[in-house]
Specification:
The protein is an alpha/beta fold and 162 residues long. The chain contains four helices and seven strands. The protein has a single domain, classed as 3-Layer(aba) Sandwich (Rossmann fold). A seven-stranded mixed beta sheet has the order 1-7-6-2-5-4-3, with helices on one face. A hairpin with a 2-residue loop joins strand 3 and strand 4. It binds adenosine-5'-triphosphate and magnesium ion. Magnesium ion binds next to helix 2.
């Protein structure tokens, strides 16, 4: 179980996915997670771990819902809503997201996780509390144990806000 606030350094995409699984296991049955970080920081990678750990999808089946904005994964009584707000900019576009439904609590006995890439764009429209997860690329020198060429260190910081 992850204790919050938490800060970790992952040294590969797989390590970020694994931390996402652990994160899912550390959340209450109803939670909103904001994934914050530059293009290519690893938000979708973390989402793969969240979806697998939440028990609603295999990690290879998780990709950004770029054109639909929201992707719903459901298994049994467990739901994950994956939002990617990269292309959402205007107030009108935010209105089309149906945020009341997105943030509606789960039915009794069900579990619902809402995880939002570029979630900081919803500032002022978020229900408290949210788990803010920030992913930052570190210089390669920060992790001499790096193995593959695709591997880079990431600093991930998670804290409840609101
Ligand atoms: N430690 C690491 N953790 C996560 N990803 C890593 C790491 N090291 C290298 N990578 C690479 O960084 C990229 C992260 O891509 P990903 O799609 O998860 O980013 P993103 O934050 O979702 O970007 P976007 O803003 O475009 O949605 C992948 O190509 C992955 O292989
Ligand atoms: Mg992404």
């Amino acid at each position: 179980m992850i204790q919050f606030p938490a800060v970790v350094t992952t040294v590969s995409p797989a390590a970020t996915v694994a931390w996402g699984r652990e994160l899912a296991a550390s959340l209450p049955a109803s939670a909103v997670v904001l994934l914050i970080g530059e293009l290519g920081a690893g938000k979708t990678m973390l989402m793969k771990g969240l979806a697998a750990g939440w028990g609603v999808a295999d990690e290879e089946d998780v990709a950004s819902p770029t054109y639909t904005l929201i992707h719903e994964y459901r298994r049994g009584a467990r739901t994950l809503l994956h939002l990617d707000l990269y292309r959402v900019a205007t107030a009108q576009q935010f209105d089309t997201l149906g945020l009341d439904d997105v943030f509606a609590p789960p039915a009794p006995g069900e579990a619902k996780l809402v995880a939002i890439e570029w979630g900081e764009r919803l500032a002022g429209r978020l229900p408290p509390p949210c788990l803010r997860v920030e992913i930052q690329a570190l210089p390669r020198a920060a992790a001499p144990e790096l193995a593959l060429r695709d591997d880079e260190p990431r600093r991930i910081a998670a804290a409840w806000v609101g």
